[in-house]
Amino acid sequence: MSTPRQPRETRSAGLEPLAVLPVFVPLQGKRAVLAGSNGGAPWKVKLLAAAGAAVDVYAPEPSEELRAVPADIAAGSVTLHERQWQPADLQACAFAIGAMEDEDDCIAFVAAAREAGAIVNAVDRPHLCDVKFGAIVNRSPLVVGISTEGAAPVFGQTVRARIEGMLPRGFKTWVGAARDWRERVSERFHGFAERRAFWERFTDRAFAEPAHVPTEADLAELLGATEAAPKGGAVTLVGAGPGDAELLTLKALRALRNADVILYDDLVAPDILDYARREARTMLVGKTGHGPSCRQDDINALMVQLAKAGKQVVRLKSGDPLVFGRAGEEIEACRLAGIPVSVVPGVSAAQGAAASLGVSLTHRDAARRLQFVTGHDRKGELPEDLNWGALADPSVTTVVYMPKRTLRLLLERAVAEGLSPGTPALVTFNATRPDQAVVIGTAADLADRIEAAGLEGPAILMVGEALRLGATAIAADQASAAQSFSTALR
Ligand code: SAH
């Protein structure tokens, strides 16, 4: 049925187009110049000074607000010169801002500043700017810059407010401590993996106790804990969920960020890989229901070999790794090879589909039991040894994974074994993904409906009285959507 194939290295899709390139300009101890005194001038002078620059301001008629700036700064320095700027004023200037009302004066200033090698900004004149300012969240040395490239300033401000709320004030001291400790940590740990482990531990602590001011005692403890932690490669089986990346667990995210190598299946949604560390190797080991697959032995061997070479290996599987994922064999291969192996659970397709549909799998008026069944045996056929009595039970909800090839046979047989033909049955294609689609019917007619629908993608079958309420609601929604669609066509 399936031709074997080899694991193959894959590359992430790369960057989407960027409206602007965000870069950060160090100005500590450098000279900056602002000329003019329009409305934007005072704030810009404060920004330059806050970044540590020595700012010379040239303004023949400074506003009251601009005059007040030199007395109101916490870093850098500001000198106000009450006269028109001259080209010589721009010597050794790293950053220049034109804030004059007169366009021609501004054009001359920008030309002189560029001549002097400065980075140039002109207040309210985007066409004259080398660089533009965005909104800022300041937890220095942690600095977040936000731009909508002029498209939606209010939107940008709201994003800024959200990020403000997400970043506790205490991050300032934690990131400051990181800067102060960086060298000592690098001296203590020479390997990349250990250093990274230290900084992960450090970051976890900062997130857990943002208000705590880090001390030397914290440093000693974090260094000690990192040293004591087991070293070398390891394998983590990670559940990627059914598709929607927001269903990843925090542990899954962390494992992805930590991984040196990620071995993933075709069923893993591409978005999920975007959460990996950029430097991580990604390898498609391609186990699909029907298409060509890598041999399980090859996957096991590759996983073990990479971990033995000291790599942090993530074996990324769709849904939950322990549900119809052959995880047992992978875990055993690692244990036999003496490789530490752990599992991060994920949202299984059944849970993802049920949640998107808003159906309870165990509605207490209808279901006493929930069972997960495979529609495939090793040969891709309907398994001979399914418990048909259990499938015909009127008080069970059955979820069938890999149902596509055998769905008609399975439902026919269940009905023959006593399942009521009118039992609600539905198939969700591409659960939790943007192209999710549902086909609803009964045990008796679902197979025909699926055939007529001609849908593609991973699919999961659910059967049982517990689905009746949900199925009726979804069918009504679909009918009204179809109605408005045909109305629109008229
Ligand atoms: N470990 C996975 C199951 C792997 S078996 C889990 O817990 O979900 C592969 C089967 O899972 C597919 O044939 C299909 O039945 C189901 N499946 C996985 N992702 C799905 C999705 N997004 N929508 C519908 N079914 C899905």
Quick summary:
With 490 residues, the chain is of the alpha/beta class. The chain has helices at residues 41-50, 64-68, 103-115, 153-166, 171-188, 192-208, 216-228, 250-258, 270-273, 296-308, 327-336, 349-357, 388-392, 407-416, 446-453, 468-489; strands at 4-5, 8-10, 31-35, 54-58, 77-81, 95-98, 119-122, 135-139, 142-146, 234-239, 261-264, 281-284, 293-294, 312-317, 341-344, 369-374, 396-401, 424-429, 437-442, 459-463.
Uncertain spans = none
Which ligands does the model contain, each kind named once?
Answer: S-adenosyl-L-homocysteine
- Give the structural class: alpha/beta
Sheet having the most strands: 6 strands, mixed
Which percent range fits the helix content?
Answer: 25-40%
Strand content: 15-25%
Reading off the top of the CATH hierarchy, the class of the largest domain is best stated as Alpha Beta
Shape: elongated
The whole-angstrom Rg is 31 Å
Count of individual beta strands: 20
Going by CATH, the architecture of the largest domain would be: 2-Layer Sandwich
Q: How many domains comprise the coordinates?
A: 4
Task: Give the N-terminus to C-terminus distance in angstroms.
Answer: 47 Å
Our count of helices gives 16
Q: Give the integer mean of the pLDDT values.
A: 92
- CATH evolutionary superfamily of the largest domain: Tetrapyrrole methylase, C-terminal domain
Q: What do we call the CATH topology of the largest domain?
A: Methyltransferase, Cobalt-precorrin-4 Transmethylase, Domain 2
Strand order in the sheet with the most strands: 2-12-11-14-10-15
